[in-house]
Amino acid sequence: MEISNHLMFAGMDAVELAKKYGTPLYVYDVNKIRENARSFIDAFQKWGVPFQVAYASKAFSSIAMLQVARQEGLSLDVVSEGELYTAMKADFPAERIHLHGNNKSYDELNMAFEYQIGCIVVDNFYEIDMISHLTRKHGQKVKVLLRITPGIEAHTHDYILTGQEDSKFGFDLLSGQAEQALRQLIDENDIDVIGVHSHIGSQIFETAGFVKAVQKIFEELEKWRDRYHFTASVVNLGGGFGIKYTEEDDPKPLDQYVGALVSEVKHQAGKRNLPLPEIWIEPGRSIVGDAAISLYTIGSTKNIPGLRKYVSVDGGMNDNLRPALYQAKYHAVVANRMNEPKTETVSIAGKCCESGDMLIWDLDVPTVQSGDILAVFSTGAYGYSMANHYNRFPKSAVVFIEDGKDHLVVQRETYKDLVKNDLPYQIPQTSCNVHK
Ligand SMILES: Cc1ncc(COP(=O)(O)O)c(C=O)c1O
Ligand SMILES: N[C@@H](CCCC[NH3+])C(=O)O
User: Fold this and answer.
1) Domain range holding 18?
2) Catalytic residue (choose from 119, 352, 353, 432)
3) Domain count along the chain
4) Catalytic residue at 352?
């Protein structure tokens, strides 16, 4: 029997998928998305505590993705009108949507009122005034969570840290701004502060930072009960659970993050004689990150003897910004040479006009040729969602695979799409004849 030299992904031949849909291409294993979602939900159910798992749609938002999230019983975290609009297009139940953002506009908040979404995560004083105005305008009560920055520095890249005192997100505990915001909110008749929110950062492996955040939150909740008779019926602990990109990464199984959070919440609530709140989390990366690969076609190579061999692919920082932005590391294989010995170490370059557009440094591969297919693993989170049009490359297509069938769920952009908002310039008469 011939042994295939091709990468199989979600039971399908990756090289055939590249041929069928073209490259660059994101391919998602829908069963893996479901499995990740269920790991969180099952873990909470085992603990028997009230909970919500809200998928952070910033990690990857598309109508198809949100249909799967809905079907798996997830709630949804959105951070913009665009993400909210996508959710509504996917018929996501409004009451299970939570709106985030450190600079929500009046229009965004208004849209949240119009759709009557589940809750708004309040981030700053400017927003409180707008929400207050909107409750009167719509004659509508609104549920909010108070986003606090607990003063925790988790171990991750500086750009994806969010729980430290010096952060653009949320109300700081240390300076007393969080307490001031709470006082302001509970004075409003139509604003129902259902609880608090904290998100300490992203791609975090250790549970210690989350546990510390829970402790800080409950210290504060105890004070707020004594001072204002405030009870949090929800404590949202954000997302940020790390995943494996390369051999260097050692994330915990998802249920262990849940276990660490739930046991600390129970401990803190018991110790301080506070009622056990509903525990909400907002994972993005850990639901979709390891559920996708990106397929590229290899084009040019440049060998600098004794120094480095650059192998260029037909995508790059336009479809995966993470290496350029955070020096994020990825692993990849040559999808049509799976059984060939690795003979050389090369660096994978993107095709954007930037020296920093490198997808992977020093990857061991078989001898490659133009036309080979490179498969980069774990690109399901913050790949498509952070894709951009730099150098006017159209955005890639997205394919879902489930039960041995492939489904195109986001079409590849065309050149027409790229210029569809461009308008011709009516050159003023005064400028005519200048460069004839
Ligand atoms: C408020 C908030 N919630 C949830 C997430 C999702 O994080 P992750 O994708 O790391 O789970 C983020 C992103 O870091 C965030 O800022
Ligand atoms: N976009 C980031 C993390 C998300 C930050 C959201 N607060 C990444 O790719 O790792």
Assistant:
1) 8-26+290-419
2) 353
3) 2
4) no
